[in-house]
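hiii so um. not sure if this is the right channel but i have a protein structure encoded as tokens and i wanna go backwards to a sequence. like what aa goes where. can anyone help
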């Protein structure tokens, strides 16, 4: 009898550990535990392109997508913020108003998981017409759940600020700017 109880406790501990540790590196793919964290991304408070991976426990398609998400996160570290939302955990902690804001995590939509959404940083902080703060542009990813597909999609959403310099004077002027890009792509 004691061995059965010990086995059940071990099984329960192991199953919660595997759910909580879906991603190897929590600094690379950051877990989101609250509705407010999702709202901060939606409201454009991030300085980078953001990607949210919505999944749930006991979802084979979700587990198959984890490797692609991790690889994309490694490819675009410091360029794209990648987040992990466990819908099972998040849904039970939401109030009724918040649940309306995150229908992806509704248990009735479990068959539609995983879902991946990208959020582009607003180009302006304030809308010049409404004078209201700009929100991040939300774009659902509808491509193949592969590292190449996700990376290609992310690359297409990263803003491109190119400066073409043709002489030394232009170079010197450019180097005097206060904001010099910290990433260079060739």
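sure thing!! here u go:
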């Amino acid at each position: 009898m004691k061995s059965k109880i010990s086995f059940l406790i071990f099984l329960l501990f192991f199953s919660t550990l595997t759910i909580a540790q879906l991603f190897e590196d929590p600094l690379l793919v950051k877990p989101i535990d609250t509705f407010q964290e999702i709202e901060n991304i939606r409201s454009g408070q991030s300085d980078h392109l953001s990607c949210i991976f919505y999944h749930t426990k006991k979802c084979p398609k979700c587990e198959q997508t984890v490797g692609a998400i991790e690889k994309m996160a490694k490819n675009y570290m410091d360029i794209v913020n990648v987040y992990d939302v466990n819908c099972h955990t998040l849904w039970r902690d939401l109030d009724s108003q918040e649940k309306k804001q995150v229908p992806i995590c509704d248990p009735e939509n479990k068959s539609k998981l995983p879902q991946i959404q990208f959020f582009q940083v607003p180009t302006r902080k304030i809308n010049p017409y409404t004078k209201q703060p700009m929100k991040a542009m939300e774009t659902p990813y509808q491509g193949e759940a592969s590292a190449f597909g996700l990376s290609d999609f992310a690359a297409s959403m990263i803003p491109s600020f190119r400066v073409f310099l043709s002489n030394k004077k232009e170079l010197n002027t450019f180097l005097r700017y206060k904001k010099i890009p910290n990433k260079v792509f060739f």
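oh and The chain has one domain: 23-175.
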